[in-house]
Amino acid sequence: xxxxKTPETPAPKIAPPSAAATGxxxxxxxxxxxxxxxPRPPAAPIPDLAGKTTSPASVGGAAAKAATAPAxxxxxxxxxxxxxxxxxxxxxxxxxGVAWGAFSAASAAALAATGRFMFPNVLNEPPxxxxxxxxxxxxxxxxxxxxxxxxxxxxxTPNDVVQxxxxxxxxxxxxxxLGCTPNYLSAEGKFKCPCHGSGFRAExxxxxxxxxxxxxERARIVxxxxxxxxxxxxxxxxxxLGQWADPEAFLKI
Length: 253
Known about the structure:
Blueprint: H1 19-22, H2 26-33, H3 62-80, H4 92-116, E1 129-131, E2 141-143, H5 147-150, E3 152-157, E4 167-172, E5 183-185, E6 190-192, E7 199-201, E8 207-209, E9 218-223, E10 229-237, E11 251-252
Antiparallel strand pairs: 1-10, 2-3, 3-4, 4-9, 4-11, 5-6, 6-7, 7-8, 9-10
C-alpha cells in the first residue's frame, strides 16, 4: 500500500582502521603517551673553604681571616644593639655593667663600715708614772718640758701655800671647768684656759678667775730609788678636799 512506511535500515558500523592500514607502530604510540621524565637537579657547587683551612699559608687561611674580620665586626656589633639603644658611648649592656659594679662597690664599703663598729677603738695613753729627772735640773718656777708628753707641769716653789716649805709639786694640765688644756703665761704668772677664760695662779694652781669651780689637781711626786723625781698621775690630790697636805702631794727639798 502506498501509505505504509518502509522500515529504516540501520547504518552499517565502520570498523576503525587497522595499524597496518595507517602505517603506525603500536609500541611507538604507547611510548608517546607516557609523561616525560623529570629533569635532574644541578650538581652541588664545590664548597668554598676560604678562611676555614688550618694552614696559615694556604689560600683563605689566617691572612684571609685578618682581612675579612674588620669588615664583619661592625655589622655584628650593630646587630647586637637594641633598636632603641641610641647611646653614642656605651651599649645598654655596658651601662648595666657599670651600674652593677658601682652598686657592688658601695655595698662592700657599707659592709666594711658596719664591721668596723664590731671592734672597739684602742686609745694609747701615755704611762701614768714616769721619772722626770733630778731635782738639780730644775730652777724656780714652772717647767713645761713634760706638758705635751705626760700632761703635767712641774713647779719648784720657795714656799708652798699649804706645806709652807720649799720644794716641788706636779700640776695636771686639765682645766677643772670642762677639761681643756690651759696655757702658761709667764709674763702674767698664771695658767689661762683658752676655752672659757678660767685662770689659775702659777705659784699654786688655785683658781682666781673664770668659770673654773676649783683649783687644778696635783699628782703624786716622790723621789725614786735613783734620786730622780717620780711622778704618778694615777694618784691625784684635790685642794678643796684638803688633800694637798698629803706628804706625797708635795716634795720638800
